[in-house]
Design a protein that fits this description.
Number of helices: 0
Structural class: mainly beta
Mean pLDDT: 94
Number of strands: 10
Shape: elongated
Length: about 110
């Protein structure tokens, strides 16, 4: 039996890292791994991986790759206000939309 969990972060959201090696850095979520509760943020949490030669990368070797971060270590970030915030929900024109709970603006 699988448990359905709703996450506050989606693909394309701008986030700030709260803890760990990348603390304080911001980036855009490129992928959310819902089954693991993790997200991949562009150009953050880079790790080195050994890869064997493939058609796309004929030389192989050591490649820098983005590793996932746990969703509990990320928070939505408003670059205009330069502050992190929590997401709320509101019904507008019959649709449920996400809003910034500090300012009330739609995300």
């Amino acid at each position: 039996m699988t448990v359905s969990v709703k996450y506050h972060i989606r693909k394309g959201d701008e986030v700030i890292v709260l803890t760990g090696r990348e603390k304080g850095k911001t980036g855009t979520v490129s992928r959310v791994l819902t089954e693991k509760g993790r997200a991949i943020v562009e150009k953050l949490n880079m790790v080195k991986r050994n890869t064997r030669p493939t058609r796309d990368n004929p030389s192989g070797g050591i490649v820098d790759k983005e590793a996932s971060l746990h969703l509990s270590n990320l928070m939505l970030y408003d670059s205009k206000e330069a502050t992190p915030f929590k997401a709320g929900h509101r019904i507008e024109d019959g649709k449920k939309v996400r809003v910034n709970r500090k300012t009330g603006k739609q995300i």
